[in-house]
C-alpha cells in the first residue's frame, strides 16, 4: 500500500483518499497528494488486486467497492472521508459512498465513465461485449492509448504498459462491470456533495445536475488533457480539488 503523505502539522481537512483507475497506480496522483498534504491527511490507495494488494472476491465492481469501503472505514473510523477517484476508481468510490452512508463526506470523480444521457449509457454498455472476447487485452491497450490522447507520449506509453501488464483477474472483471453498469441509480442515490471532473468522457454536466442537485461538474476539455488530467494538467486538477474539497 502506498503510505499516507504526512505533513509536519496535522491538517484540518481530515482524511483524503485517492483511488486510481483500473490497472493504474496510486502514484498517478502524486502531484495532488503532495499539493494537498497541507490541508488533508492524504491516503493514496491501490485498488484490490493491483500493485501487490490482495484481490477482492471475484474482482468485480461490487466486491472491489466493498473492499475499498472497508479500507476507507479503517482510515476514517468516524466516517466523513473525502474521496477522489480516477476513472473506474471513481465508480468504485461512488458505490462505496452510496452503500455505506456516512463513510464519505465529499466525492470527486476524475473523468469517470458515469454517463447519464440515454444514448451515452447505451454506448457504454455496448462496449462491455469487447471485454468478453479473446482479444480483450488488445482492446484495453488501444482504448487506453486513445483515451490518453497525443500529449506526453513517453509518459503515455509507460502508463498504458502498466495497465496492460496488470493481472487479468484484477482488470478484466472490474472493467467489464464498470462498462455494464448503469450509473444513474447510484448517482441519483448519492447524498453527499460530488463533483465530476470531465476531461474526455461523455458525461453531460447539466444532465448530472438534473439527476441529482448534489452533483456538480468541472469541464477541463478545453485543456485537451485526455483521460489522465491529474498527470497531464496536474495544477488544474489540484486547483479544482482544493476548491471543491474546501466546500467551494
Strand-and-helix sequence, N→C? EHEHEHEHHHHHEHEHH
Strand order of the largest sheet: 2-1-3-4-5-6
As a percent range, the share of strand residues is 5-15%
Q: Any low-confidence stretches, pLDDT <50, length ≥5?
A: 1-11
Total number of helices: 11
Helix content: 40-55%
Determine the N-to-C terminus distance.
30 Å
On the 0-100 scale, what is the average pLDDT? 92
Summing up helix and strand content along with how strands pair, one would put the structural category as: alpha/beta
Evaluate the radius of gyration.
16 Å
Largest sheet: 6 strands, parallel
Report the count of strand segments. 6
Shape: globular
Would you mind describing this structure in some detail?
Strand 3 (81-86), helix 3 and strand 4 (104-110) form a beta-alpha-beta unit. The chain is 47% helix and 13% strand. The model is unreliable at 1-11 (pLDDT under 50). It has 248 residues and is an alpha/beta fold. It has helices at 30-36, 61-75, 88-99, 118-131, 136-148, 153-165, 168-180, 184-189, 205-211, 229-232, 234-245, and strands at 15-19, 41-44, 81-86, 104-110, 194-198, 215-219. It has a 6-stranded parallel β-sheet, sandwiched between helices.
Amino acid at each position: 500500500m502506498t503510505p499516507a503523505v504526512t505533513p509536519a502539522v496535522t491538517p484540518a481537512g481530515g482524511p483524503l483518499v485517492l483511488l486510481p483507475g483500473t490497472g493504474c497506480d496510486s502514484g498517478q496522483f502524486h502531484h495532488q497528494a503532495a499539493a494537498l498534504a497541507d490541508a488533508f491527511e492524504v491516503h493514496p490507495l491501490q485498488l484490490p488486486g493491483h500493485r501487490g494488494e490482495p484481490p477482492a472476491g471475484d474482482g468485480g465492481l461490487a466486491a472491489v467497492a466493498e473492499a475499498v469501503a472497508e479500507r476507507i472505514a479503517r482510515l476514517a473510523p468516524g466516517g466523513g472521508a473525502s474521496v477522489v477517484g480516477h476513472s473506474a476508481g471513481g465508480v468504485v468510490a461512488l458505490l462505496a459512498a452510496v452503500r455505506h452512508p456516512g463513510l464519505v463526506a465529499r466525492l470527486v470523480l476524475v473523468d469517470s465513465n458515469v454517463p447519464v444521457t440515454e444514448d451515452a449509457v447505451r454506448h457504454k454498455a455496448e462496449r462491455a461485449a469487447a471485454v468478453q472476447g479473446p482479444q480483450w487485452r488488445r482492446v484495453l491497450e488501444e482504448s487506453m492509448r486513445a483515451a490518453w490522447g497525443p500529449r506526453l507520449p513517453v509518459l503515455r506509453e509507460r502508463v498504458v504498459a502498466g495497465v496492460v501488464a496488470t493481472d487479468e483477474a484484477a482488470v478484466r472483471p472490474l472493467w467489464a462491470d464498470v462498462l455494464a453498469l448503469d450509473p444513474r441509480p447510484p448517482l441519483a442515490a448519492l447524498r453527499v456533495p460530488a463533483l465530476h471532473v470531465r476531461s474526455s468522457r461523455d458525461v453531460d454536466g447539466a444532465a448530472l445536475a438534473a439527476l441529482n442537485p448534489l452533483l456538480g461538474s468541472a469541464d477541463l476539455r478545453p485543456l485537451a488533457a485526455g483521460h489522465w488530467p491529474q498527470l497531464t494538467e496536474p495544477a488544474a486538477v489540484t486547483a479544482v480539488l482544493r476548491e471543491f474539497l474546501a466546500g467551494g
